[in-house]
Amino acid sequence: DTAFEQATLAETLFANLNPNTSNWLPKPPGTVSFYSNDGSSLAGLVVERVTNMSFDLYVKEKIMQPLGVDISKVGVRLADFSNREELVKHNAYAFNEPDFNAWTQGVPQLNVTKLSENFPTWLNIPFFGFSVYPSGLFRMSARSLSKFLQMFMNNGSNLISPKSIAEMKIVVGGGLIPYYDPSGIANTSVVAPPSFGLSWTWQTLKDGRRYIGHSGTLPGARHWMIVNEKNTVGVIILSNGDSNVPSDRSQEYYKLLENIHLALFE
Questions:
Q1: pLDDT tens for each residue of 116-171
Q2: Which among 114, 121, 233, 235 has most CB atoms closer than 10 A?
Q3: Residues of the signal sequence (predicted)?
Q4: Domain segments of the chain: what residues?
């Protein structure tokens, strides 16, 4: 959190999107589609410049508070929460020693520990923040997030214009721009490549139906919120499981979340 305070959104972006690094446009604009945290952060920077407010404060005061969310229990920094007992713990599962080693060697700064000496065992991932802005982790309860999703489903609820909601749903390039997959993950994944709207994505699940929403994963936690194509039902799952380490078990975990979603939509 201390390091977090030392970098502005602009400083972080301009350092990351340096023309001399591979982070900057690996493909020419308009030739591929891919979700970009940097792209979303650039949009956040526009908000900061127009409103003269930090992006996280803008989201709290101009979006979450008008929705009736207690903004004292919403935040991007660990320091935003006076009582960390209210935060859900981050966990992962290790079937064997190589699973555990994948965590300790891959993210040594998290100090992952085993909850028991015998495998299989749960792993505890201590609460963590980020050293740069934006944090990428806007902590809130499922109830608070549901108010945001209801606003989206209600065409903006006089908070966001219906035109903006419509633009969020429009697939970039009419679905004709190929998905950018340099590592070939899409060819081996159980997840079909998504179609991208404005930060939101369309996904076809195994029932053959299309859903729009947003998901994210960090060590020890995953969220997934989607709305059916008819815009009649929305489902949010916040999990303290994990799908970060590439493995068959991560794919099984994804399938489990998908089954829960589809059961709730039924």
A1: 999 999 999 888 876 556 555 788 888 999 999 999 999 999 899 999 999 999 99
A2: 235
A3: none
A4: 1-89+127-140, 141-266
Q: 19-58 burial string, b = 16+ CB within 10 Å, else e?
A: eeeeeeeeeeeeeebbbeeeeebeebbeebeeeeebbbeb
Residue 168 token pair:
């969020």
Which two three-digit tokens encode residue 72?
């004292």
Distance between terminal CA atoms of the chain? 42
Q: What φ, ψ does residue 6 adopt, rounded to 5°?
A: -90, -5
pLDDT of residue 5: 53
Q: How many residues does the chain have?
A: 266
In terms of DSSP H, where are the helices of 52-194? 55-58, 97-106, 142-153, 162-169, 185-188
Tokens 């690094």, residue?
Answer: 21
Contact 69, 165 (CB under 8 A): no
Q: How many CB atoms lie within 10 A of CB 148?
A: 19
Q: How far is it between the farthest Cα atoms of the chain?
A: 55
Burial class from Cβ neighbours inside 10 Å (0-12, 13-18, 19+) for residue 6 reads exposed
Residue 246 CA to residue 156 CA, distance in Å, equals 37
For 109, counting Cβ atoms within 10 Å of its Cβ (0-12 exposed, 13-18 middle, 19+ buried), the class is exposed
Predicted TM-score of the model (pTM) = 0.84
CA angle 88/94/97 to nearest 5° reads: 140
Q: Using an 8 Å Cβ cutoff, are 235 and 261 in contact? A: yes
- For 137, the token pair is 């982790």
As to burial, measured by CB atoms within 10 angstroms (0-12 exposed, 13-18 middle, 19+ buried), residue 16 is middle
